[in-house]
Design goal:
Layout lengths: L3 E5 L8 H11 L4 E5 H4 L7 H8 L4 E7 L7 H10 L17 E7 L17 H4 L1 H9 L3 E8 L7 H15 L2
Parallel strand pairs: 1-2, 1-3, 3-4, 4-5
Helix pairs in contact: 1-7
Amino acid sequence: MKKTLVVFAHPYLEHSTSNVELINFYVRHQHFTLRDLYEEYPDFHIAAFRERKRLQQYDRFIFQFPIIWFGIPPLLKLWIDEVFDRNWVKEGENNPLKNKEVYIVVTTGGKERSFTKDGSYKYTIEEIISGLIVSLNVFGANIKDITIVYEANKLSKKEIILQKKKFVEILNQ
C-alpha cells in the first residue's frame, strides 16, 4: 500500500459527521497518516520546515476540507502558502510533490446545482478551489481525483457510508 498523508483542515469539525466518518477511516488504516491542521496549529503558526520534511516521506497525498465562504479553509491556505516552496520547481531541487498522486476531497453544505454556471453561486467547486489545483499542477503533482460531497450536512449515516465506500474505491484504482 502507498504511504499516504492526509492533510485535513476543518475549523468546525464537531459539526461535520461526513468528515468525521472519513477521518475514522484514515485512522483505522496504518498506511494513512492524518494531519489535522486545526488540531495541530490552533495558533496558525505553521512549522514550515518540519512540514516540508514530512512531505518527503509520503507516496500519495489527500487534501480534505470543507468549502468555507466559497474558498478553502484559512488555515489550509496558510499551510500551502508557508509549506509549498517555489524552489521546488527549480532544476535539481527536491520536489516532494513531483509525480505524486494527489486526491482532493471537498465537502459542502450546498447543492450540486448551486455550483454551476447557471446555479446560485455561478462557480463550480473546481473553480472555487482553483488556487490549490494550480499550485499542485505547478509542482508536478498528479491529481488523480477530486471528490465533492454536496449537502454533506444533510447526509444520512447510510449515505455517508456510501460516499466513503466510493472514495475508498477511487483510492484503490
